[in-house]
Amino acid sequence: MSRNLLLISTSTTHGTGYLEHAAEEVRALLEGKKNLLFIPYARPGGISHSDYTATVREAFAKWDINVTGVHASDDPVKAVHEAEAVFIGGGNTFVLLRNLYANKLVAPLQQRVLKGMPYMGTSAGTNVAGKTIGTTNDMPIVHVKTFDALQLVPFNINPHYQDPVEHSTHMGETRETRIAEFHHHNRQPVVGLREGSMLRVQGDHITLKGPLTARIFLQGEKPMEFAPGDDINFLLEAY
């Protein structure tokens, strides 16, 4: 399997511009590429596909990479088949997945990415790279026929993972509690990906990038912390 993925928790961290915190990894992923197909279906805040694509185009211009939005193509499936690389941005995961199925892009994306086409996701775009979208933080504002995602990796991801705030008086559920609920009904591991963190997947090797640890949840076991550089290849052998 020739996977070449960069799965980023968020597109913007505090005090940085769009994708600035991940610039080194983005350049490494897209080395030698001149054109990028952007899939803007997640529409953060309801932004239009064209406006979302313009934001991404501006960010990648400084790396001399031309960005085209898939929405501008008369044949989105053909656009995916001809793409040099694909980027799926953040927003609402349910809206994104519904549109991927509606435009018949799930199978073409799987075929191209698993044969080596570079794939980059942020937030919702990272969610859909996993086995299902069952660990998204988003509201289900539209109906989806299935939670099954692109399954580029055999585990789930929880982008924007947040730890409980010490001494907080908030009595609601923590993110860890919700993931534990998920594991009452689902077996696959879940990676809690904190802001500024990302996963680099090359073939059958996976690396945690960024300044922070990731919290990994396995069904029936206590959560574990892994630092950048730790061996987390077991995630690619998940059920």
Characterization of the model:
By secondary structure, the chain is α/β, with parallel strands linked by helices. Helices cover 24% and strands 19% of the residues. The protein has helices spanning 23-29, 49-61, 76-82, 93-102, 106-113, 124-127, 175-182; strands at 4-8, 35-39, 66-69, 86-88, 119-122, 156-159, 190-193, 198-202, 205-209, 214-217, 224-226.
Summarize this, please?
This protein has 239 residues and is an alpha/beta fold. Helices cover 24% and strands 19% of the residues.
Structural class: alpha/beta
Mean pLDDT: 96
Globular, elongated, flat, extended or rod-shaped: what is the shape?
A: globular
Structural Rg? 17 Å
Q: Poorly predicted ranges (pLDDT <50, ≥5 residues)?
A: none
CATH class reads Alpha Beta
Number of helices: 7
- Provide the domain count: 1
What percentage of amino acids are in beta strands? 15-25%
CATH topology: Rossmann fold
Termini distance? 16 Å
Question: Can you write the helix and strand succession as a string?
Answer: EHEHEHEHHEHEHEEEEE
The major β-sheet equals: 7 strands, mixed
Report the CATH superfamily.
Class I glutamine amidotransferase (GATase) domain
Share of helix, binned: 10-25%
How is the largest sheet built, in terms of strand order?
3-2-4-5-1-8-9
Tally the beta strands: 11
CATH architecture classification name? 3-Layer(aba) Sandwich
